[in-house]
Amino acid sequence: MNTFEALASTVIINKENHLISYDDSLQLVGTGRSAFVFKIKSTDKAMKIFFPNFMHLAKEEAEIYKILQGISYYPSIYHVGANYIVIDFIDGHTLFECMTYGEEIKIAHIKEIDFALSLASARGLNPSDIHLRNIFITSNREIRIIDVARFRQAKNCMQWHNLKKAYQMHYVKAYFPKKISATLLNTVAYLYKRGLIPFYRG
Length: 202
Ligand SMILES: Nc1ncnc2c1ncn2[C@@H]1O[C@H](COP(=O)(O)OP(=O)(O)OP(=O)(O)O)[C@@H](O)[C@H]1O
Ligand SMILES: [Mg+2]
Known about the structure:
single chain, binds adenosine-5'-triphosphate, 2 domains, 202 residues, 6 helices, binds magnesium ion, Phosphorylase Kinase, domain 1
């Protein structure tokens, strides 16, 4: 058993997708709809452990990261197991965090994200599930995109298109607050997902 495998086996997730326990050398840094993400302490690597019912995504996400290798906007992948992947830890804030902390998202960032996504498309992928928690601005002010598991889906994802529209129509305006509470952002995301915001359906 290699070290990553031993470390991954310490992470216990129950049937209700609650995190029960994990090794002291792991630090929980994020939770998504399908996984818990840990920083492996004293390294620059992150371990994404999928919930039991999303295990199959480990292989899929790993394969997609392999297709993206060499593009600096995406983390490198180091290892894949039955229910986990090991990738670069990203030191920075997601766009969601930037908005709640009041860190301004510049037009140059939006253009760079567009460019990063176009590089994925150029490798035959279909960037999907591009939302505020899957895009980082690093502490060096660089863009990183994570959570690529759905980049091979056939369905056209409008999320990034709609986020850009909202950025241009609202965020850039002087009157628009650059610091927004997580509760308000989550409420907007909830309404968006249910198709309840006109002009931003799908
Ligand atoms: N490599 C990383 N470095 C630092 N933080 C990370 C990393 N990967 C993920 N995170 C944090 O963990 C959160 C969840 O990760 P991720 O988006 O991969 O999970 P998911 O379950 O696939 O998410 P979703 O709900 O978008 O499907 C991210 O929003 C981010 O805050
Ligand atoms: Mg995510």
